[in-house]
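anyone seen this seq b4? input:
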Amino acid sequence: MNPRPTIKLAIADDQKLFLKGLKFIVAEFDNIDLILEAENGKELLQKLETIRPDVILMDLKMPEMDGIEATEILKARDPDLKIILLTMYNEARLIAHMMKIGANGYLLKDEEPEVLREAIESVVERGFFFNEYVSKALVKGLRMKGRPELPSSGRGSEAKLTRREKEVLELICQEKTNGQIAQQLFLSQRTVEGHRRKLIEKTGVKNTAGLVIYAYRNGLVGML
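predicted toks r here
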């Protein structure tokens, strides 16, 4: 069995005690390597000019530049960069907004270490991490009149998806990896990735997490 590839991780958080504890936890993960630390979004952006992590753990509330602004800037520069937002607040409108601007996941700071590991690995393998409170927040947004907080492609349900694209989208919503989708549909992983990118292009969303939200929003799969 081949060893899991090492995931390069960056952390941006201004709370020194929390950061120290987080580093201690991450050090216990054999397949995750912390390569960058920053105390705010501005410092993070500067350091990312010379190094690129696979995943960023980003605190929402930081001085000089908070996680919201930093995420917006980073996603505009590099849409494939995986960002997980960290916060003390489980608030539906905030969660929906962070997914709208392109975040790949959202975690409360009091989660168990194994949930943190799962989230990091999930955004690398699947492009997103939805846990119970994120799912509930998105469903709540879907049921709101007008649904203003949820990701909008500007194209509504007008995107014309092929049968194969719908099959790939449904499996993405089931949290299948490219490899698992390829195996189930008898395709190559390169072909699956091509379908994924075409789906993002057609729907106008920013990332795989946006695809999942788009699918539920437009009734292409069952409710979360």
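Strands lie at 7-12, 32-38, 55-59, 82-87, 105-108. Residues 205 and 219 are 16 Å apart (CA to CA). kinda curious what u guys think
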